[in-house]
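Suppose you are handed a protein chain with no further information: no name, no annotation, nothing but its sequence. What can you learn? This example shows the usual starting point.
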Amino acid sequence: MLENNKKVLILSCGTGGGHNTAAKAIQEELLTKNIQADFKEYLEIIDVKLKDEINNLYIKSTNKNGKIFKNVYNLGKIYEKTNLKSPVYFLNSLSKEKLYSYIQSNQYQFVITTHLFAAQALTAIKKEYPIHFMQVATDYVSIPFWEETNPDYFIIPSKELDRG
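A reasonable first move is to predict its three-dimensional structure. Written in structure tokens, the prediction is:
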């Protein structure tokens, strides 16, 4: 799938350490195969200040047994049943031009993401430009809004996450 002459961008998001840890492990493995692979936090490309605000908001939402995060997550599951594009997709699609410009200017031929936010932005890009990307699920359960994405490949850690 990936040849040694490919240049790969690996995107993640600092909302929880697992996404970045998985992304860095993918980068390390590609580098051992002599494939140029660069790791970047998606929101850092879009807006560094926004990155810090969203990452801090996530950390705060997980305090006190994660009650706020659980409530927002449950609202996402309810919204998903409406079959309307989520506000999360809409917000991430706003960054498509900036992200696509970054990908083009750095001459990446393939993108791998371990986070929903980047996957949504990449899906919005894919509707207008020829781009190839892979999603790697890092969550323990299937999360709301993955269906709003359109990767070339979607890697899941367990068959239980397959919504089929």
